[in-house]
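Subject: Protein record for review, amino acid sequence with backbone structure tokens
Category: Structural biology, sequence-to-fold work with a learned token vocabulary.
Format: Residues in single-letter code; tokens as whole numbers, each standing for a residue.
Body of memo: The sequence and its backbone structure tokens, given next.
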Amino acid sequence: MSCNVVLVMFAQVLRPLVVVSLSLAILGCGNSQSPAEVGTNVIPPLPLPDDLLETGLQGQIPLADQLSGESREGHRKGLRLVGENSIQQRGANFALAWVGDCAYVTTTSAAQVTGISSDPSGLPVRQPLNGMAVIDASNPEAPELVSILQSPAMLAPHESIQGNEARKIIVATLVTGGVMDVYDASDCRLPILKASVTLPGYAGHALCISDDGMTAYATSGKSGGVGDAVVDLSDLENPKILHTFNPANHDCGVSDDGNRLFVAHRQEKQGDPTGLVIFDVSDFQRRKQDPQMREVSSLLWTKMSEGEYEASDGASHTTRMFRQGKRKYIYSSDEVVPFYACPWAHGRIIDITDELHPVKVSDITLEVQKSENCSLTQLDLVPYSTHYSGVDDPKNATTLFISSFGAGLRVWDIRDPTNPREIAYWHPKPIAATRLLAPGTQGITSNGLLWDSVPTYVRYRPELGHIWIAGNTAGFQILEFTQTARSTAPRPKRTSE
């Protein structure tokens, strides 16, 4: 390609930046390779804005917007929709896992968790639309629903579904009993059920898997002597419990080397401390004889120690590790579910570089989650609690994605972990007539008549710059940043052809 052609192309595509573009093009003249040759990274400009800004407090869905119908349009800033699949408008979507180009979305409801079929938000477990939705997202603009699989645990997995890229597997547990399903997703479109086994002494809730895919840590989130389990996944057809431990924890994360387990400790009764506990699980990672768990340290809090920004019935929920250079951090958040439980649960960043002495370095609190705004937010009848998370790069994170109920997806610049800054947000457009749950009975996690939530873990694909989420009613969605996001937003790094 000649220098003249390059100059014209740069001037047309980046008209506001003609001076810079001309300089770049001229520098490339006379070189043996141009920026578009094979093997180079091409970072395209972000798309134009497609914003519909929130009208109230940060994160709020004001009652006025609900009554006027504006909330049904889905407020957003710095993000736009690339593609979506409503999963036949089934609703009740609650958890997201992934392997390769495929997404796996499962459901929850109050009836699934409690086993009470008479609950008004009762989801018929055997309904054909319930189960693990397999979505082929190889075409991001048109994700395809391939199938809905209904193995025992996938009918009611609550928060437990997890995928593992190293071994191409999907694992989940049954929320009302200790059943674990293990799938081989070598062909991600056609997962094969390898095992569905009972785990004695364990009741399902959530799950985390070591990066090598050899060990699962299953948490029950319950009190009363029901424990958590360490499960050997070496033989996919015969997962085995290696160890059970108490007290039960809410959710968990595993260090990238597999030697540390980070649990979200759930208090036994209201008022007890909740928070982060770090365990040495290297015996299990190395498959030692007579393996033992050893507590390394903890960082616990109560309503009083956290100040006014924590509801009395909040419980630690999420603990996921990321690195920045030589430092190690945990993103930890609590969960408060009822829509009347203001002030709402928020997140925090904890420095665990010195794992014997973990230190909180920042709180991540939306305006809508603060106690001084409770008189305004409780009128909305919307739960504004945080839920799950994701980062752009666990080995060198710059961007944190936080999912929540009423506050939607929130995106934060965490290059300075002591001073996170919000750069984007997304509220999905709700679907009123969901097929698994009647309009208005979606429960505490959404209201398809008025607003939707983003309850899932979040995936960021750096090669595409795409963000994967699932809305409770909206279904599976793929997003990307727009120009409204700060210049610090991660950019896709596509290799030219």
User: Anything to note?
Assistant: The helical segments are 3-13, 18-28, 63-68, 110-114, 282-285, 303-306, 374-377. The chain has two domains: 1-37, 46-495.
